[in-house]
């Protein structure tokens, strides 16, 4: 072991100077043990110590970091990590599956998501370090660590870009409507690119510079309340909007108004009352049904954030963290179900891939809908710092594995990441298609494949033989992930070649 390793903070978070404990040395040894068969015994002793402690619910013995975040704040943070732009695509997914099939799939993805967190937590109990990349390292050495780090980076950069796209395209419309600017003539405050930079510098960057994720609990709570407001508005609108709805652009054209709202090229056919297009379906299968699982999987991705949140949890145990995950997933499940159901019941077959757009087609200047847009904008903006944390941690794990916390590096990584995402959103809006592919590859890796294969490799054979039920189940889970990845990629390729791209998971 190199002397430098004795000071390693493997989770990428540092202690204050002088806070270094012998625990750090224990971790460094365990990192080494992964590579040296001779140390396997010591390693196993350490793992069983973690496991027995977790199971006994005695004083926890995780020594990689002393967390201070409460149970409630951790629920807010994880809930905020789960809830993002994914919610806007769910009504569309329901339109393409029907209500019953959607509920079955939503329940399945939520359940699988929670099982996958169980695998991650159990593996991290064995390794003793709560970092996704370290699980990869323990399971497969450097390639495993690289694979985890790269998947987290790609997935989360994709998610953050999708949030900033919302800021770029929604924020100018909201400002325009609130200021009642009918004919915009190049005002800077209606330019989405400037707004993205302003929001990034004034809101996201200061939050992303926080030393610990736990501090973001309050903003996460606020972000979730914004989404609750969105949900209440979606439910309320179901009883307000008559099906078939009158397209605003169509009305304005018919009445001869000069409107700045572009008419949808497809238009909305004015269907008579009693049209089947206004009857909700219980089951539905069409060419877009294939996108449902990628949309749902994207909506439930929070796995890169689980271990950082666990690291900062006060008195951490596996059971406690699993409760936090189950509560967050459970609450999001209910919110997702309600948003999808009422969004679908409002527009039935006319619902678009992005729910907010559909409301704008009724009346883009409706005050409630403008407030809802503002709420969604705020919610996704406040999610960016949470999603940025695991990327910074992955970069630290990959490039500066043996370094203690250092403010200049912490700040430089955040600034660089935000700059890259801003440049992508401003100059390469067409890259969303690429993120569809990334979403289709990194999401199944992070949710299904990595937790399962890491678990199989990390949990010692003495404790769970290869043919034991938990490991066979984990193997099936990994297989499901591969199947899902191949399917999603196949659909995207078919979509591209037939030229009807809808962009699956990358909203
Ligand atoms: N955190 C993520 O990667 C995506 C998040 N689950 C969303 O719905 O936007």
UniProtKB/TrEMBL annotation:
GO molecular function annotation: L-asparagine transmembrane transporter activity; L-glutamine transmembrane transporter activity; L-histidine transmembrane transporter activity
Keyword Transmembrane helix attributed: yes
UniProt keywords, alphabetically: Membrane, Transmembrane, Transmembrane helix
Protein name, entry field: Sodium-coupled neutral amino acid transporter 3-like
Main localization category: membrane
Top-level taxon of the source organism: Eukaryota
Listed Polar residues bias regions: 21-38
Stretch list, region Disordered: 1-41
Protein topology in the membrane: Multi-pass membrane protein
Location in or out of the cell: Membrane
Domain Amino acid transporter transmembrane, chain residue ranges per copy: 68-494
GO annotation, cellular component aspect: plasma membrane
Transmembrane stretches, start-end: 71-92, 99-121, 146-167, 188-209, 215-236, 324-347, 367-389, 410-428, 434-460, 472-494
InterPro entries (alphabetical): AA_transpt_TM
GO biological process: histidine transport
């Amino acid at each position: 072991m190199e002397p430098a390793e004795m000071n390693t903070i493997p989770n990428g978070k540092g202690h204050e100077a002088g806070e270094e404990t012998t625990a750090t040395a224990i971790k460094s040894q365990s990192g080494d043990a992964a590579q040296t068969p001779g140390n396997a015994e010591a390693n196993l002793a350490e793992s069983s110590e973690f496991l027995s402690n977790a199971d006994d619910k005695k004083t926890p013995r995780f020594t990689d970091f002393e967390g201070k975040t409460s149970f409630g704040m951790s629920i807010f943070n994880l809930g905020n990590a789960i809830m993002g732009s994914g919610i806007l695509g769910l009504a569309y997914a329901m339109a393409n599956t029907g209500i019953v099939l959607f509920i079955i799939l939503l329940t399945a993805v939520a359940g699988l998501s929670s099982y996958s967190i169980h695998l991650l937590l159990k593996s991290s109990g064995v390794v003793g370090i709560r970092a996704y990349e370290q699980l990869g390292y323990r399971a497969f050495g450097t390639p495993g660590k690289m694979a985890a780090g790269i998947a987290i980076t790609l997935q989360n950069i994709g998610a953050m870009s999708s949030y900033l796209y919302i800021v770029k395209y929604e924020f100018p419309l909201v400002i325009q409507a609130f200021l009642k600017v009918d004919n915009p003539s190049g005002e800077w405050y209606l330019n989405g690119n400037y707004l993205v930079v302003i929001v990034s510098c004034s809101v996201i960057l200061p939050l992303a510079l926080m030393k610990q994720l736990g501090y973001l609990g309050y903003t996460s709570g606020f972000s979730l309340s914004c989404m609750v407001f969105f949900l209440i508005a979606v439910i309320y609108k179901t009883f307000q909007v008559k099906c078939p709805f009158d397209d605003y652009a169509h009305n304005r054209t018919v009445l001869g108004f000069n409107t700045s709202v572009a008419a949808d090229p497809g238009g909305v056919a004015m269907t008579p009352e009693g049209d089947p297009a206004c009857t909700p379906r219980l089951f539905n299968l069409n060419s877009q049904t294939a996108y449902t699982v990628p949309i749902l999987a994207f909506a439930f991705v929070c796995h890169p954030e689980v271990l950082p949140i666990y690291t900062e949890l006060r008195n951490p145990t596996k059971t406690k963290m699993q409760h936090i995950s189950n509560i967050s997933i459970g609450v999001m499940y209910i919110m997702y179900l309600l948003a999808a159901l009422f969004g679908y019941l409002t527009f039935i077959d006319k619902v678009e891939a992005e729910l907010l757009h559909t409301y704008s087609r009724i009346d883009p200047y409706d005050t409630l809908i403008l407030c809802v847009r503002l709420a969604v904008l705020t919610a996704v903006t406040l999610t960016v710092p949470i999603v940025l944390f695991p990327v910074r941690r992955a970069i630290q794990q990959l490039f500066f594995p043996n370094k203690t916390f250092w403010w200049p590096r912490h700040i430089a990584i955040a600034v660089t990441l935000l700059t890259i995402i801003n440049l992508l959103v401003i100059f390469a809006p067409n890259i969303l298609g690429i993120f569809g592919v990334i979403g289709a590859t990194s999401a199944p890796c992070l949710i299904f494949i990595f937790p399962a294969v890491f678990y199989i490799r990390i949990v010692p054979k003495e404790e769970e033989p290869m043919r034991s039920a938990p490991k066979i189940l984990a193997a099936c889970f990994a297989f499901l992930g591969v199947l899902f990845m191949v399917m999603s990629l196949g659909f995207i390729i078919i979509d591209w070649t037939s030229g009807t791209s809808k962009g699956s998971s990358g909203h």
